[in-house]
Batch of 4 targets.
Target 1
Amino acid sequence: MATVHAGMTMSLDGFVADRHGGTARLSDPAAAGGSGYMTELIRETGAVVLGRRTFAMAEDPDWFVDNYEFQVPIFVVTHRPPDVRPAQDENLTFTFVTDGIASAVAQAKAAAGDRAVKVIGASVVRQALRARLAGELHVDIAPVLLGAGLPLFGDPDLEGIVLRRIAVLEVGTFTSLRFALAE
């Protein structure tokens, strides 16, 4: 059965996008395609759950088919699916889930088989953690300070979640933290 890994890259001061919504300063070429780190993430991922905002960051939704690192089924949590469906192929498909994070994660787990489900996007990561749907939290720390922007955490409903560190990796200039969520 698929495991669920929630998380993403954030600045050292806890933001996943700057005050203008940009993420360029959070990118690291050493962690990008071709690295052992990225190759392993791609190999272990069987499905992805995204929030609508993360999905919309691609100005052209058809971009995902040839460019997104995870060429797997993608489940987008949204209140309103797009009017025009993005391009898909035999590997990368889109399902727009309108009945919440639990439904999206359940569908992604079924699609992923024995591989991991990645939950990506600040809002859906928080939702998955609050609902105790994730077994692991993965946070890659970029060595930058953004000062303001979209925080990954800062949600009082996350209080009481207990984490157990399972890995700390150096990936280029980034630090990758892996935690198991205690039962």
Note: The mean pLDDT is 91.
Target 2
Amino acid sequence: MHIERLDFENSPYLGVYGLATDRVLLVREGLGEKKLDVLRDVLKVPIIETSIMKSRIVGIFAAGNSNAILVPWYIWDTELERIKGLLRDFGIDMEVVPFKSRLTALGNLILTNDRAALVSKEFTREEARAIGEILGVEEVERGMIASYHAVGSVGVVTNRGGLVHPEAADEEIEWLSDLFGVDVYVGTANMGVPFVGSCMLANSYGVVVGHLTTGPEIVKIEEALGFLD
């Protein structure tokens, strides 16, 4: 299966608690083994259970792609070493970079795949350039989606496709498709929630959506993220 419904302690906002890339999944601590098995089966990558700044909202704080993961400068040393150590144990050569900025909600403010990154205008141009260099992407842009600075919470993009807030204009969709090099669609999850990045964990292998996501929403998500044959 490329797509499954799941909840984290009755919360349908899976993207708040994790970051999925094509090489690893960072996710909050304390999930049961059955839910971890679903995540492994669908996303097909090793899992690192962690906290960031002693918080479970890992997906709010972390952003990344196949090349690197950015975390807030204020991450605890023990958390950083745990993530780096487990990556080594899994044989994954991947940078984990504490990013020095007044902004800490990196997962909310950065939308990226392996080709490009869109970062909030809240970042300076210098910060945007640095983010692009760390992520190893061809292009990095500062901007908004549907008038929202939190581009990581109103969108989800992989190397196969993208889904963004339903109020995104046609011109924005075309621009995002060109930027990320994939088809981008508009849609919702969890019975009409437009903040799709907060509702799911997705990579090029699959997507796990909040348990409130409806059948029609799932069909649109599958189409947007490239899982409909």
Note: The chain has a mean pLDDT of 97.
Target 3
Amino acid sequence: MSSSERTYHHGDLRRAVLAAALDVIAADGPDALSLRDLARRAGVSHAAPAHHFKDRTGLLTAVAAEGYALFSDALTGAPDLQERGVAYVRFAAAHPAHFQVMFRPELHRADDPALLAAKARATEALRTGVSALPGTPRGEDARLAGVAAWSLAHGFATLLLSGNLSDALEGRAPEEAFRTAAGMLFRPGSRPGG
């Protein structure tokens, strides 16, 4: 067996390339990804990643789909909307590379079946949390309530990952700080018209 054949036959090439991609994204962002570099990091031939992902967009689509699947699992386990927000923040802190790719649709294939299914599960988990709020309006107002909750959790997570909350947290755990902030905004009677 030649050296190039040994390099190509990797135990779990797909997982190895995904793991290397997540490392690169966490350190340098998704724009730093190169299939050739990832192949080198995984110890395989430069053409091997294309076998599983076709191209860079395919790889980023797989990262986003995996991220949304993990994300929906994290959200589904939370008992109410506030705790789903806490799970959102916790997910972003634990999976910063996934988080960076998931919310940048220009990086992945919007019609990918695995991505669509995982994204739909996450969206349903968020909607269920909003609809369970007492006194939640219906129709367009319910949709805006969902956008408000999403904006709070996503904004907090983004500020956390970019290092902009260091002073505001004052040594508190991010999840606890989010829980307090959400409680200030979403306590009963604090909604407009409530």
Note: The radius of gyration is 20 Å.
Target 4
Amino acid sequence: MKYGNVKNIKKEVLSDNWYTLRKITFEYQREDGEWETQVREAYDRGNGAVILLYNKNKGTVILTRQFRMPTYLNGNEDGMMIEACAGILEKGNAEQTIIMEVEEETGYKISEVEKVFESYMSPGSVTEVLYFFIGKYEESMKISEGGGAEDETENIEVLELSFEEALKLVKNGEIKDAKTIMLLQHAQINGLFSK
């Protein structure tokens, strides 16, 4: 079977513990017409959604802080990360998933979101497409303390920061999460707080 300039794809499951890690062996046609065998590993954790909650009148954003083991293993001293609210898609619907995640993680019940773009976050090894949203929040939308779903051991701290403070945290390295940086920069480039 051939797909464009790729053929003879063979997949081997290396791990199916949390999500699925596969070894992919395939033939790839180079520009000179020659076929070469290549081997890659691809981690399939599903697709996800992320949102920047913002309050234009207050000039604030809602972010979260939680422990991330992979960052701890790669030099993040306490393993804590400041991030925009995000989650893996459930039932394939990005908009419904992010509205549900906002309520679970932050305690805000929102009903309207705006999709701003989508991105492969680590295309060399991870299959995930991440759908990026922005959404307005008001104090009246706060229905619980948030913190994440109890059965998912998330232990999430909810942070309300001024937009300017969030940008400073990116600059000084306290926010190192790519999806969060992308959404904050989207807000800055598009004048979300100046419209």
Note: The first helix runs from residue 69 to 73.
